[in-house]
Design a protein that fits this description.
21% strand; single chain; Rossmann fold; 30% helix; 247 residues; eight-stranded mixed sheet
Length: 247
């Protein structure tokens, strides 16, 4: 785990060595949300729109994402997967950028938050869904551990509970249950998971617990400290041991 700019730090990763990129980059909604009468800043001190890391211009953000996908295509193995969380209004733009760098678009899924913050509930519908996009690098399919069972691209669980926020608060922290599902489905034991926008470190926590190797980058000093403590405290799940029984 490194405290630094992911575009610079990814240059130090060898070609074709990553099995899964699981990440939640800036959605470029900061300037957009600041102009809306959403009352969000009053409701939450660490709301992303006032933190300063999500307020690039549209052109600056697209340029940053283009550089990100270029590096991602280089470091991912052929057939390696990427799960990218993204605001639904940005999904089409992201798909277009990814395809220019050889990514095969698989699907756009939905995370339905069963207990979202009821912002302005008497004014409009509560925002309870968040999108994620699934790509495969340079191939049409990759690792997919579904055990022969159908897996829907609509996932339901609550937001990160208090027990997962003991090292600090992050405004867009993802719950461990959600991220674990991606790691276990799209990688195998010993595979390498990369999160270039590590944030609170949930991707690292679940990777360690699932017996995967993890690389994470985070630009913010405060969030890096939080993520570093969380990931280092995580422990791999112990395998079930079956003893032979003499009859």
């Amino acid at each position: 785990m490194i405290n630094g700019d992911c575009l610079e730090q990814m240059k130090g990763i060898s070609d074709g060595t990553i099995d899964l990129i699981l990440t939640d980059p800036p959605y470029n909604l900061g300037l957009f949300m600041k102009k809306r009468d959403a009352g969000l800043q009053r409701m939450r001190d660490n709301f992303f729109a006032v933190k300063g890391w999500d307020d690039l211009s549209a052109d600056e953000w697209a340029k940053m994402m283009d550089a990100f996908f270029a590096e991602s295509a280089r470091v991912l193995k052929k057939g390696g997967s990427m799960i990218l969380f993204m605001a639904v209004i940005k999904v089409e733009t992201v798909i277009g950028i990814a395809q220019r760098h050889g990514f095969y678009y698989k699907t756009t899924g939905t995370w339905h938050k069963t207990n979202p913050m009821p912002r302005n509930m008497n004014l409009h519908y509560i925002n309870s869904c968040e999108s994620w996009v699934y790509f495969v690098n340079g191939a049409k399919t990759g690792t997919f551990n579904n055990d022969g069972k159908p897996m829907h691209d609509f996932m339901e669980c609550g937001v990160a509970p208090k027990s997962e926020r003991v090292y600090g608060k992050h405004p867009t922290q993802k719950p461990e249950a959600l991220m674990m599902g991606f790691v276990e489905t799209l990688t195998n034991q010993g595979d390498v998971v990369l999160d270039p926008f590590m944030g609170s470190g949930t991707s690292g926590v679940v990777s360690v617990r699932a017996g995967r190797q993890f690389i994470g980058f985070e630009l913010s000093n405060d969030y890096f400290t939080m993520a570093n403590e969380r990931v280092l405290a995580a422990e791999p799940k112990q395998p079930t041991l079956w003893a032979e029984v003499d009859e």
